[in-house]
């Protein structure tokens, strides 16, 4: 790479014919533009490309939801922005198969609260453990957050993400469990959720002392 010391055209930058001009540490350098770029078509390269694309879309979705973004902002996860925190964390958790990514709605939880998720008869059921059940009614505000992802398949050209937040109230519970009709929650027709993946987490938010806590994200896969 050659260094450009003087130019009658002033300061240059970018592509000029077969040349590329770059500015590095206040100095300009010129290099030849390659005739072509090699694109790897290996299985690993394609997987990594699809993985990054999926996580970027997920991170943008989560970062656009104020109450979830607030949790990431206040977390101890390292990152130069909230979006970067979400992206970095989920890239590590993604998993080995594009068809079943290990996404997390919130940063890894530091409490002992847990939920169990199942889907039967068109309903998504979320079972609370005893500690979480009690905590849900001692905080000023508790919400159930459900993310639905339609996976890449022969029917769908790309992933489709949508999230619903349900305020937790006493009348929703039956034996420490909340059961919600999926079609009504997401405005779907019958069986339109058959190829979906659901990600569920509970957020507990106290307005009196501004303390927040949350559960780890649990996923339920309709199809494998």
Number of E-state strands:
13
The number of domains? 2
Average pLDDT: 79
Give the N-to-C terminal Cα separation: 51 Å
Largest sheet: 5 strands, antiparallel
**Fraction of residues in β-strands:** 25-35%
Class of the largest domain in CATH? Mainly Beta
Instruction: List low-pLDDT spans.
Output: 152-156
CATH architecture of the largest domain: Sandwich
According to CATH, the homologous superfamily of the largest domain is Immunoglobulins
How would you spell out the order of helices and strands?
EEEEHHHEEHEEEEHEEE
User: What is the helix fraction of residues, given as a range?
Assistant: 10-25%
User: Helix/strand/pairing class, anyone?
Assistant: alpha+beta
Query: What is the radius of gyration computed over CA atoms, rounded to a whole number of angstroms?
Result: 24 Å
Shape, principal axes of CA atoms: globular
**Number of helices, counting only DSSP H or I runs of 4 residues or more:** 5
Throw out a few tags for this protein.
224 residues; alpha+beta; Immunoglobulin-like; four-stranded antiparallel β-sheet; 13 strands
Description:
The chain is of the alpha+beta class and 224 residues long. It folds into 2 domains: 2-32, no CATH class; 43-221, Immunoglobulin-like (Sandwich), CATH 2.60.40. It is built from 5 helices and 13 strands. It has helices spanning 43-63, 66-74, 82-93, 130-135, 182-186; strands at 2-4, 14-16, 19-24, 27-32, 115-120, 123-128, 141-150, 160-167, 173-174, 177-181, 196-205, 212-214, 218-221. Strands 7, 8, 11, 12 and 13 form a 5-stranded antiparallel β-sheet that branches. Strands 1-4-3-2 form a 4-stranded antiparallel β-sheet, with no helix packed on it. A 4-stranded antiparallel β-sheet has the order 5-6-10-9. α1 (43-63) crosses α3. The longest helix has 21 residues, at 43-63. It is globular and about 70 Å long. The protein starts with a strand and ends with a strand.
